[in-house]
């Protein structure tokens, strides 16, 4: 048994490391996202399937989440997170080469690996919960999400500069953002590998020390069944999936919607920065509300916020910035409420032995849903328009509100 004081010291060191890696990795993801959408539009010569880039990255995040969780159960958080960021470095470099050579398939492979890095960045929030006390669990998780604000908001502002540098060096403008993302993923992985020691999951007892008796990996279907067996874990699972899917579906097509109505890259970058500020800057508020008033209430608040966001974007037919800025900001804020409260509720609603596997399964399901949404969003945008895309998101957020009420009633009757 590790002494309580030692656990507190490890938790503080873990949080500091996660804050640094979160700034860097989220900066990488946010820098790569807009240039990847524009790059695949150039590769395809059409915007109809521009959601393929986001879809490929979410496929990578979905395919890797359960595998990385199983790896972490056997080896710990530190090697698992470092491995995920290493895959993203390779992906960003592949995508850079593919943009130069015009290789669509290689570009998509690169985006899949970049998605592994994005999923790894998302999974890192659970490392903050390994040694957290129940009274601070939401706030510790939210602190990692909040730290990402600085990378998510600041680094996309340098996309133009990176593009200019790439062009001056004789490369494609979109390659600048990809190269910058590779550097940021490298720094994030190095920070975790060097400084996140001792490993928080090992200290928490979530890794089997006896190497002759390894914990068997829990299959995805079994992990989902574990979550589905408890009403509150089920609610947390659904909240994570819907919050991510609605956010990605609307956000992924925002650059194309604004571009189609005459907005330049600078305006698009500012709206995306406002969106990412909503996602990350108010995470401490989400954590405090979740710890103070309960996870379920904040999940309901997340659903209300997502409904409000999609109402505004549904009205933004000509993409006026007066509607796009608040709409995308609220879209990010609703995501933040849902992810912070959902992550904490999921962590505390299942047994410790199953916790890492269920966390990985939730992120796998989340990324499958958001990947499907991203792929479909380009088709919906092309065939029906941005307002219909927003209405679909509004319906999903409304379903989350109804589900929260239903599951809370069941949990109350079982208590």
Task: Give your account of this protein's structure.
This protein is mainly α and 415 residues long. The chain has one domain (4-204, 217-414): MFS general substrate transporter like domains (Growth Hormone, Chain: A, Up-down Bundle). Helices cover 82% and strands 0% of the residues. The protein has 16 helices and no strands. α5 (137-154) runs antiparallel to α14 (321-348). The mean pLDDT is 87.
Q: Topology, please?
A:
Layout: H1 4-44, H2 51-75, H3 77-101, H4 104-127, H5 137-154, H6 159-168, H7 175-195, H8 200-203, H9 220-228, H10 231-260, H11 265-280, H12 283-293, H13 295-315, H14 321-348, H15 355-383, H16 386-414
Helix pairs in contact: 1-2, 1-4, 1-5, 1-7, 2-3, 2-4, 2-15, 3-4, 3-7, 4-5, 4-15, 5-11, 5-12, 5-14, 6-7, 9-15, 10-11, 10-13, 10-14, 10-15, 10-16, 11-14, 12-13, 12-14, 13-14, 13-16, 14-15, 15-16
């Amino acid at each position: 048994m590790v002494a309580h004081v030692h656990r507190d010291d490890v938790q503080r060191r873990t949080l500091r490391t996660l804050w640094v890696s979160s700034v860097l990795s989220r900066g990488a993801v946010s820098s790569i996202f807009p240039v990847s959408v524009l790059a695949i539009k150039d590769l395809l010569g059409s915007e109809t399937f521009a959601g393929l880039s986001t879809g490929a990255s979410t496929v990578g995040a979905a395919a890797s989440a359960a595998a990385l969780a199983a790896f972490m159960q056997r080896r710990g958080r530190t090697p698992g997170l470092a491995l995920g960021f290493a895959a993203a470095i390779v992906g960003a470099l592949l995508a850079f080469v593919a943009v130069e050579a015009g290789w669509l398939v290689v570009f998509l492979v690169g985006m899949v690996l970049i998605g592994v890095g994005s999923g790894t960045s998302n999974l890192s929030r659970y490392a903050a919960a390994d040694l957290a006390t129940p009274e601070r669990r939401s706030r510790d998780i939210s602190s990692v999400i909040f730290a990402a604000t600085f990378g998510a908001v600041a680094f996309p502002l340098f996309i133009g500069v990176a593009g200019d540098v790439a062009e001056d060096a004789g490369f494609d403008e979109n390659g600048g953002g990809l190269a910058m993302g590779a550097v940021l993923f490298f720094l994030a992985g190095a920070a975790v590998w060097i400084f996140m020691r001792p490993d928080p999951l090992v200290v928490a007892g979530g890794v089997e020390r006896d190497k002759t008796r390894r914990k068997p990996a829990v299959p995805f279907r079994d992990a989902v069944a574990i979550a589905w067996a408890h009403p509150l874990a089920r609610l947390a699972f659904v909240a994570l999936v819907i919050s991510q899917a609605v956010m990605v579906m609307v956000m992924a097509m925002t650059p194309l919607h604004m571009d189609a109505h005459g907005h330049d890259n600078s305006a698009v970058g500012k709206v995306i920065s406002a969106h990412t500020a909503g996602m990350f800057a108010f995470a401490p508020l989400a954590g405090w509300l979740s710890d103070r008033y309960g996870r379920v209430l904040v999940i309901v608040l997340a659903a209300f916020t997502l409904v409000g966001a999609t109402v505004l974007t549904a009205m933004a037919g000509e993409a006026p910035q007066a509607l796009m800025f608040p709409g995308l900001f609220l879209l990010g804020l609703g995501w933040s409420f849902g992810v912070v409260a959902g992550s904490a509720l999921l962590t505390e609603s299942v047994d410790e032995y199953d916790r890492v596997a269920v966390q990985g399964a939730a992120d796998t399901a989340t990324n499958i849903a958001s990947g499907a949404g991203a792929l479909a969003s380009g088709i919906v945008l092309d065939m029906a328009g941005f307002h219909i895309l927003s209405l679909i998101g509004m319906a999903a957020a409304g379903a989350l509100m109804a589900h929260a009420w239903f599951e809370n009633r069941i949990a109350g009757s079982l208590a």
